[in-house]
Hints:
Blueprint lengths: L11 H4 L3 E10 L3 H12 L4 E5 L6 H4 L5 E2 L19 H12 L7 E3 L2 E5 L2 H14 L3 E4 L2 E8 L2 E9 L2 E12 L5 H5 L4 E3 L12 E4 L3 H8 L7 H13 L10 E4 L6 E4 L16 H25 L7 E5 L9 E3 L7 H5 L7 E5 L3 E3 L6 E3 L6 E4 L11 E3 L8 H7 L2 H21 L8 H10 L5
Helix pairs in contact: 2-5, 2-12, 4-12, 12-13
Amino acid sequence: MKQWQLESHFDQHQLRLPILKEVDVLVIGGGSAGVAAATISGRNGLSTVLIEKYGFCGGAAVAGLSGTICGLFMASDNPGHQPEQVVFGFAEEFRSRLARRGGVTGPQIYGKTFTVTHDPLVWREVADECLEEAGVDIFYHTYASGVVMDGDSYQGIVVQSNAGESLILAKRIIDASGDAAVVARAGGEYYFGDDGVIQNPTMFFRIGNVKMDTYLDFFGEDTICPPKVTEKILALNASGEYQMPRHKIWIFPTTRPNELMVNSTRLAGQGDRVLNVIDPADFTEAEIGGRKQMREYARFLKNHVPGCEDSYVVDTGVEVGVRQTRSIEGVKKLGNEDVVNCLKPPDGIARSPWPIELHSGTKPKLHWLLDDWYEVPYGTLVPVKGENIIVAGRCLSAEHEALASARVTAQTFEYGHAAAQAAIISIQEERSFRDIRGEDVRQRMQLAGSRF
Length: 452
């Protein structure tokens, strides 16, 4: 393997590392944003590498078992409201591929809107298919442990695997880690939520052997629990029989017969301390606490929800579901009022009709966007400093409540799509990400199937 020979701008340790790859585009992270970014980049003829710490793609949707593609459909209070899809592009391509393999449900009621539930194994297979078709080089079981910089210019990544350390050099880098891991390692500017207060992680789980007709007769078609379930949880907590910190739980029928996916846990530290999973101690506490809470909610379902009497836990997420960690300081910031007022800037690169769904504190907050959507500006993906770097995913620049809407799967697919289109423009026209007009990215996305 070649050795890194460029001169004095680089750390002496990095100078001695072997070069694993030199490519046009390097994507860090194989979640929804990363898969979209790498697929679009490779499909457009750029040499592309994607690295992922697990042995599969999916991020929060698969490892975290969030299990739904939220953000595709409009919300409404109109009587008899039917699913009205308003987000397409790569998000719809991926959903369609899942559907062809039987890996996604039809629309399910979620309060005033709809969502779909996917099979996490099929999600992995569809991601592999997209990436391989696009000619992307995939390195699973590999993560970024350092950044190669020339002044403010990102030149590549130090990657770590069981083979040791090596370098991947790239003309452009897309940080789709979800945690702004590359930006943070290079000393870029970022923040955590609302003065450090971030959304709670959660441990998703699935139960099998459910008598679905009995369950649906009791729980109803809405995946957000009815008041009688919340009242029962509160009563059992008050009696001392159970300890269930979250009172409004969400349950989704899956693609598999007689199976439910459950979003019920609320993970916090001692004294309701916010757990920030960037800290491995907090991450560990969330994992252990999440499994304990999962068993308590599974016991509740078995003993108090008709149809679940003979149910059993199928699995949990490989890791807790992470809603929020770092957000970059971007050229633009998505504001809370931008979301509430459904602003549609001319440089918008992703529609979102999803409510502000804030999991912070003792109960979720839902603020619905009725019969409308907002659009996320391109500049939210571009860090305020640093060359050759763009982000995609939940680490975009957004205020706390705005992020509680903008972080969901349909939108993160489209952020990855946008980041890749920007990388194509940047390389072909030799322009900085900050010098690219969002309107130009938007136009390329429209030609590829996105709608605005």
